[in-house]
Design brief:
This protein is an alpha+beta fold. 30% of the residues lie in helices and 29% in strands. It has 10 helices and 17 strands.
Length: 330
Amino acid sequence: MKRIIAIVCGGDSSEYAVSLRSAEGVKSFFDKEKYTTYIVRIRSNDWHVTLNDGTNVPIDRKDFTFKQDGRTIFFDYAYITIHGTPGEDGLLQGYFDLIGLPYSTSGVLVEALTFNKFALNHYLRGYGIKVAESVLIRQLQATCIDEKAIENVVGMPCFVKPVAGGSSFGVSKVKKHDHLAPAIRKALLERSDVMVEACVDGIEISQGIYKTQKKTVVLPITEVVSKNEFFDYDAKYNGQVEEITPARISEETAARVSKVTEAIYDILGANGIIRIDYIISQENGEDKINMIEVNTTPGMTATSFIPQQVKAAGMTMTEVLTEIVENQFC
C-alpha cells in the first residue's frame, strides 16, 4: 500500500505564494511508486485539498481527513512546506501532535524558538554559537525609541527586520540612526516585534542538513552573491543573485561550518531538513562563522538552495524525501 502524503502549504503570512511554489516542487520530487500525494492549502479557516482533476475539497479539521468518491481519506504523513505561520511557528505542529499525525518538521518548541530570530540568537549564544548583536523592539515601544542608544549597541549600518518571518519581507538595511524609525515602521507591518541587528560584513553562505536514525547528511555549502545591497526578495526570487555550490571558501572553513551546522541541529533537537544561513567574516585574518538564521521549512522549488545542494552531493530529492518520510516509521 502506498503511503498517503499531505503536502501542506499556504499559511497566513506574506510568504503564501512562495509556499505554493515550494509545494509544487515537493510534489514533483516524491516517489510516485511509493506515495500518493495531495496538496493541502491552508489559509485562515480555509483548509482544502486539491484533487488531481483540480477540484478543491474541504479538509475536516477534526481529524485532517477529506471525502473522495464517498470514501474518507486519511493521511499517513504531513510534509509541511508553509513558510511562516502556522507551519513554521509550532501552531500546526501542535495540531498534528494532538491528532497523532507524523510530520516532516521539528516539534512545537523548536519551531516556536527558531521562528523568533531574537530568541533563537540568544539561546544559541549560550551554547557558544557566534551571532550578531541585536536589540528587540516591541510594537508599544516603537513610538519612543532611542535611536542613538540602539546605534551604540549594534552600530551602523544595521538591519531592521521582523522578529519572525522570511523571504526578507519587511527587512531594511539602515545606514544612519535617524533612518531607524521608518525602517521599524516598515517591519511592524509584518510582525508586532522588530529586531535591529548589527550588520556583519563577509561572505554569505547557506547549508542544509538532515538526520535519520541511520545517518547524518550535511549538504554542500552554497555561497550567495546578491546583485542587490543585501539578499532581499528580488535577489531570492527574481534572479538578482548568483548562487554557487559548493561555496568558494577554504576546505578548513567549510569543515568548521559543517560542524557548527550539525551542532545547531543537535542543540535544537531538530527533525527533517533544515537550512542554516551564515556570514563568514574576517577577524584578525581568520574566518569567523556568524549564524544568521535557521530555516526549518526551507524553500523547495527546483532552484532553491536545498535541491541545489542535494544535486551537488550526488543525490536526488526523491531519495532524500523518501529517507525523511520513512524515518518517521522506523
